[in-house]
């Protein structure tokens, strides 16, 4: 079944280029000699930029069209829902989700799953448009009119979904927010 993202895949990188490498390196605390998961990573536009700063990057996404684009960047990719990742607990030293949490079916389950695959001492970053801004409210309306299943939640709500063993901070710039999570040792 072709979905919105399969149709957008060939144009996605040009329409929405990745331009915040320095911020992402800081928030993820890279480089690191470990594995990085880009959950909902689509075309691999962010993963490709981060590849030199980690041992290996894996892109997980539900869109076959997006994953085909990530394979063109020589990235390891697999089709998997963010709520049910096919990895053992603690597999990744870094986990990333950029502009995708509002597209998943169950955000609470997704966050629990991202937390599960993160190793103790690891870091997880969720970048999302900040629904508290007018610009993002308009984007949310457009996505609803386009029949996308988007459901935006605010950065404090996202931060509140993490367990007490998490050290969570939120950074906001313009209409973007980053929820930065450290998994304290077990």
Topology, element by element:
Blueprint (H helix, E strand, L loop, with lengths): L3 H12 L5 H8 L6 E5 L5 H6 L5 E6 L2 H8 L4 E4 L12 E7 L8 H11 E12 L4 H12 L9 H6 L5 E8 L2 E8 L3
Parallel strand pairs: 1-2, 1-4, 2-3, 4-5
Antiparallel strand pairs: 5-7, 6-7
Helix pairs in contact: 1-4
Any descriptors?
27% strand, globular
Describe the model.
With 186 residues, the protein is α/β, with parallel strands linked by helices. The protein has one domain (4-183): Rossmann fold (3-Layer(aba) Sandwich), CATH 3.40.50. It has helices spanning 4-15, 21-28, 45-50, 64-71, 107-117, 134-145, 155-160, and strands at residues 35-39, 56-61, 76-79, 92-98, 118-129, 166-173, 176-183. Strands 3-2-1-4-5-7-6 form a seven-stranded mixed beta sheet. The model has no long low-confidence stretch (mean pLDDT 89).
Strand order of the main beta sheet, please?
Answer: 3-2-1-4-5-7-6
Helical fraction equals: 25-40%
Please provide the count of β strands.
7
Note the gap between the termini: 42 Å
- Catalogue the unreliable spans: none
Assign the structural class, choosing from mainly alpha, mainly beta, alpha/beta, alpha+beta, or little secondary structure. Answer: alpha/beta
Top CATH class: Alpha Beta
**Biggest sheet: strands, sense, closure?**
7 strands, mixed
Enter the CATH topology name: Rossmann fold
The helix tally amounts to 7
Strand content: 25-35%
Mean pLDDT: 89
CATH architecture: 3-Layer(aba) Sandwich
| Radius of gyration over all CA atoms, rounded | 15 Å
